[in-house]
Amino acid sequence: MTAKRWLRRFTRYGMITLLCSALSGCWDRVELQEMSIIMGMGIDRKADGSTRVTAQIIDTSGSGASKGNTQEGKSFLLLEEEGPTLEEAMQDFFGKSARRMFFSHIAIVVFGADYAKHGLEQALEYFERNRDFRRVQHLAVTGGTAVETLKGATGVESISAKGILELVINQGNTSVSLESSELLFDNDFLSASHAPILSWVDTNAKNEAVVKGIGVFRGDRLAGLLEGTKSRGVLWFLNKVERAQLELPCENSKHTGSGAMIEVRQIKVKVSPVNGHDEPEYQVRVNGKGEVKKMCTNEKFESRTVREMEVKLAKAIEDEMASALAYLQKSKTDAVQFGSKLFAKDPRRWRKLSQEWPEHFTNAKTDYSIDIQITHPGMISKPLPRMYDPNSSAPKFNWEESGP
Predict the structure, then answer these.
(1) Which is the most buried residue in 52, 214, 363, 377, by most CB within 10 A?
(2) Do 255 and 333 belong to one domain?
(3) Cα distance between residue 213 and residue 319, in whole Å
(4) 271 and 231, same structural domain?
(5) Cα 21 to Cα 13: distance, rounded to the nearest angstrom
(6) This model's pTM is above 0.85
């Protein structure tokens, strides 16, 4: 190959290499110090009807706690804007920020109770139309104001929005609350039952963020806040209980915390509409396996005792479900998705009842069939004091008889 051809080929490959390097460059990159990374948002309704938006922004200055809006010992800042509507409050953020606002890393959006009671329609509309927001961002409701919840302490987490999300996830694993993304909320909002739910986060007397239960919605308006066993009662119906610990009463015991404790796992719940009734009726089947965490005093892990605990356990679960359902029926809020179940099985019948479904839901009846098999006594079969047997204990070593 001649030198001329080598030169031509070298020039051609050189130009291709330069072009590829130019195309792969970060021509539109934005440095971290030039961005305002939003990790959490709070939306509140003020007394005059205006909207207050709180943004929790990562402090990228490296200065740590300082005066102003930076929380002491935390690596974030809280910025607030107000406006007649959510859109106008958000526009003030964009108009006043010297940095580019980056919303794609939002961990959680918290709605204040007053805002949620007046409806989330405006916020959902804004999120759905704005491409800066992700549909997997988590939503939550609080019993107070969103701004105070975002200020709540979350242990070792320096950014409270991320800490609150971790709390929600952990409590979801123990069936106190549940993870509630925007996409899941939208799906339940558009379902036949038209009754989505959100996790309920709040602060305690020590200003610590806590997950208390769930908020149930009738459409886009908050209908009530449920905590404890009522919250779990709703999750039973939705087959969202991963594991649950229930206390069973012991004979001659009147004190809370002194009963047997059973942890239920491998839970499957099926809710099926039953045909042939004027008002809706449902068959609720619950199956799972239980493990003993604590037994009553003087009880042994034997077939008779296990059977008695299984009967008590089924009754306890039914009571939780019935109590939660009674609350929902009183408020005409179908958060257990009975309407969606009926629509899936019998669309024609659903269409006949749909216009007056809240009234039909209040009259819905349920038949429970609960089978939880206690299969394991835990890591030990009986309490340690009862495992002690002096006849089988090793003798104490006598130093005097042992000699030099």
Answers:
(1) 214
(2) yes
(3) 18
(4) no
(5) 12
(6) no
